[in-house]
Amino acid sequence: MTRVAGIDVGGTKCLGVVIDIDRDVNGEQDLLAQVRYATPHASALVDTLANVAGELGEVATIGVGIPGLITLHGVMRASPNIVGSVDVAVGPDLSARLGRRVYVDNDGNAAALAEWRYGAGRGARNMWMVTLGTGIGGGHVLNGVVQRGVNGFAGEIGHMMVHPQGPQCTCGRSGCWEVYASGRGLRMLAGGEPGEDVIARARTGDTAAMTVLESYAQWVAVGLSNLTNLSDPDVIVIGGGVSGAGDIVMPMVQRWFADTLYSPEQRTHPALRLAQLGEYAGAIGAALLPQFGV
Ligand SMILES: [Zn+2]
Predict the structure, then answer these.
(1) Which pairing describes strands 33-38 and 13-20: parallel, antiparallel, or unpaired?
(2) Which of 2, 166, 252, 260 is 20 to 30 A removed from 36 (C-alpha atoms)?
(3) Does residue 182 sit within a domain?
(4) pLDDT digit string (tens) for 193-207?
């Protein structure tokens, strides 16, 4: 048995888990330990992470996943969900505190690793994880290694521009993919109606709601098609809140995806699969960072 720890820093909580990296992990039942702390102001984040690590006990390695722009050296340049998160040296400071190297990466990269190793992306050679939440997160696992880029900012797929004259994004630019294909995007396409309500109405067969979902699914497919042209993946894993309505949305996405795929007769179509590890993907994936994230 090799106990390894992963900590997922979310907007409201820090979730720490311990897994045995030599065994399968299919969900909560396979966790050897789990600890939750409220996410503090960025100035207290290293203290909180040190407490979580302490409670998780003896482990071989520790990884941490954080939303936002995380450099190759584990510095949090900016995080949308953590107050005060400008240039916080989480990795270096936590490593110094604990007297051991701690691996820190973006939470989307961590979740991608978890789904690749234990979830819907098992066996994939070239896998994208796409998280359709309030915004859109992503991670790319190629030949068993999560791709980080030169700055550590690879996989920021929510900010692929799909319509330069489109509405403004939270990043300040216009027409990013997440303006249309995130939970916020669904709400915008529905004229301000919450996404859950649109989905509930669509389930009753409401044609106006179905039309909104078709439009949403088309925008999702646009991004998936662009990702396919970029890197020719074999599997794309879809996670996040919207995937909870996968039964009704995914068939629409599948259809639009097939319609927008470049050169469909010449290629194996990437398999679109729903994520399997749910809220634990980030923490489980963080535990995999020391082995697959460097
Ligand atoms: Zn943007």
Answers:
(1) antiparallel
(2) 2
(3) yes
(4) 999 999 999 999 999
CATH number of the domain residue 204 falls in? 3.30.420.40
Round to whole Å and give the CA distance between 207 and 218: 16
d(CA 158, ligand 1 centre) in Å: 6
- d(CA 26, ligand 1 centre) in Å: 33
Q: Give yes or no: residues 69 and 95 share one domain.
A: yes
Q: Ligand 1 centroid vs 173 CA: distance in angstroms?
A: 6
Distance 84 CA to ligand 1 centre (A): 20
* Gap between the Cα atoms of 160 and 245, Å rounded: 24
Is the residue at 95 inside a domain? Answer: yes
* pLDDT score at 83: 87
pTM: 0.95
Which range of residues forms the domain containing residue 283?
3-111+279-292
Q: Give the mean pLDDT of 15-31.
A: 96
Task: Flag whether 168 is in a domain.
Answer: yes
Query: Within a domain: residue 190?
Result: yes
Q: How far apart are CA 189 and CA 209, in angstroms?
A: 10
Q: Tell me: do 55 and 151 sit in the same domain.
A: no
CA of 141 to the centre of ligand 1 (A): 22
Do 94 and 202 fall within a single domain?
no
Q: State yes or no: pLDDT of 272 exceeds 90.
A: yes
**Ligand 1 mean position, distance from CA 159 (Å):** 4
CA of 136 to the centre of ligand 1 (A): 10
Q: Does residue 239 or residue 83 have the better pLDDT?
A: 239
pLDDT of the residue at 57: 96
> Cα of 242 to ligand 1 centre, how many Å?
19
How far away, in angstroms, is 138 Cα from ligand 1 center?
A: 13
